[in-house]
Amino acid sequence: MAPMKLYGSTLSWNVTRCVSVLEEAGGEYEIVPLDFSKGEHKSPDHLSRNPFGQVPALQDGDLCLWESRAICKYVCRKNKPELLKEGDLKESAMVDVWLEVESNQYTPALNPILFQCLIRPMMFGAPPDQKVVEENLEKLKKVLEVYEARLTKCKYLAGDYISVADLSHVAGTVCLGATPHASVFDAYPHVKAWWTDLMARPSSQKVASLMKPPA
């Protein structure tokens, strides 16, 4: 069977969110880079894979998917369903809860920090807006307080088992490590231990290696 094709740039944390799960699940795949400067993400070919002209997109035979978390769930169902815990109603519900928390609480606080500290200087040659950074650091700290309380009770977010909910945090948090605010986890010992554990996994190491910007 042909490998799955993941379209997009590995500098995108939405793309590498999928890589984290593909690596953990052991799915055979290849990354197909798109040249944004040439508008390849808006080409008819890519629009047939993702009608919004965004990344990532995943092609598996005649199936095309977009939206990174939907791709992650598909990969888990295909290659490693235990990452979703769908055989247990309560455990799968907790995986869903913490994947939603990542999407609706953690990442919305994190993304403005990453944009200001990484994207704005690199793409626009402009310094970070420190007011935006500080506002979102405060939001992130409030989220981390909830994570700290949760992780005093279990090793991973959904329970004492790794799941797609944990893996979905990897790409964005790797990027946080490249900002001046990488030490924000230090005030939350259980969060820091959780993150250290995640980063020791080969799947996370792969993501970190892919997200290094070109010299």
UniProtKB/TrEMBL annotation:
Q: Which GO terms describe its molecular function?
A: glutathione binding; glutathione transferase activity
**What keywords sit in the KW lines?**
Transferase
KW Transferase (keyword) present:
yes
Per the UniProt entry, what are the Gene Ontology biological process annotations, in alphabetical order? glutathione metabolic process; response to herbicide
Q: May I have one GO cellular component term?
A: cytoplasm
Q: What sequence ranges are listed for the domain GST C-terminal?
A: 88-215
Record bears the keyword Transferase: yes
Enumerate the Pfam families for this protein.
GST_C, GST_N
* EC number from the UniProt entry: 2.5.1.18
Q: Which reaction does it catalyse?
A: RX + glutathione = an S-substituted glutathione + a halide anion + H(+)
- Known CDD domains for this protein? GST_C_Phi (cd03187), GST_N_Phi (cd03053)
Residue ranges annotated for the GST N-terminal domain, each copy included: 2-83
PANTHER family, A to Z: GLUTATHIONE S-TRANSFERASE GSTF2-RELATED, GLUTATHIONE S-TRANSFERASE RHO
What family is this protein classified in? Answer: Belongs to the GST superfamily. Phi family.
Query: According to its UniProt entry, what is the function of this protein?
Result: Conjugation of reduced glutathione to a wide number of exogenous and endogenous hydrophobic electrophiles.
Q: What is this protein called?
A: glutathione transferase
Organismal lineage? Eukaryota, Viridiplantae, Streptophyta, Embryophyta, Tracheophyta
